[in-house]
UniProtKB/TrEMBL annotation:
Its cofactor is Zn(2+). It comes from Jeotgalibacillus soli. Belongs to the zinc-containing alcohol dehydrogenase family. It comes from the Bacteria. GO terms for molecular function: oxidoreductase activity; zinc ion binding. PROSITE patterns: ADH_ZINC. The keyword Oxidoreductase applies. This is Alcohol dehydrogenase. Residues 7-343 form the Enoyl reductase (ER) domain. SMART domains: PKS_ER. Keywords: Metal-binding, Oxidoreductase, Zinc. Signal peptide: none annotated.
Amino acid sequence: MKAAVLHSENHFIYEEIDIAPCQDDEVKIKVIATGICGSDTHKMTGKWKYPLPAVMGHEFSGYIVEKGKNVTNAAIGDRVVAIPFLPCNDCEYCKRGQFSLCEDHGMVGSKSFGGFAEYVNIESSNVLPIGDMEFEEAAMIEPLAVALHGVLNIHPRVGDVAAVFGVGTIGMLTIQWLKIAGAKEIIAIDLSDEKLADARAMGCERTINPLNEDLLEKINEYTNGMGVDIAFECAGSKITQEQCLLITRKQGKIGYLGIAYSDVHLSEKAFENIFRRELTLKGFWNSYSAPFPGEEWTKSIEFIKNGRIKLKELISHRFKLEDTQKAFDMMINREEKYGKVLILPNEE
């Protein structure tokens, strides 16, 4: 099959590779759409930690073209989304159903070959049916489930005022889930006026660009000096990771979805707020719960199907499989404004 093979940091070669036979408990997916995750581009500018050569891509959908003899939950022709996380099912956390905390998990797209390829073999327990959902939308179920994992576990209350730092894909999906969960008002915070305009179009009542406005002054203005009930950090910036602690009201809650890519040093004021305001801080990793893969995935599929979640509006670019290098160069070098970027290995 053809694949975009990673040979070193941000060095992809479009080439022919062998795909292993489909094992007894596996299905073979013909990949139609694969998303590029924000973490993928960060891995290209840092240190790749996994075996090389590699085939990335952990957000993908397609249909089944082959299945092993033991597979009973899927059939050839089924339209499916892939669940890239492979829990060991043996560690203490897996036995508790806390799969996101698995101590020895596999991961399609890093530890094993992923969706920047024409086909992927995966255990049949790691696919869910999508019915007639568009494949491009289905390729965004994984990040949608990540956002829902955070929102479900921060336990928002009807009428909450929330702030979302960073309105890239995860931020925009978090905004939509907060709306569904009953947030009265959402304040989007980003350095891009264009992204803030997108957030307003998605239903954010207020926006703040800290390059042009004083963040604390605007938060105080919008909340009558109280601060927000919930702050979500979706930017993965050491600056915003601290700012969450400055804008949240007493006994408010902070959810960290963005990955820390450098050391985070807190000011005295930010650290004091944790205990003086009795803040609750929660980190969220991946998107899984029991029964695997969890309600984060099943509810995501349900809400897409009933039209409650907007996904296609977030897609900005589509690239052929052979142009995977161009896609990463565009994103890493910020050659164009982009939202969600998809690779289409098998255009149909």
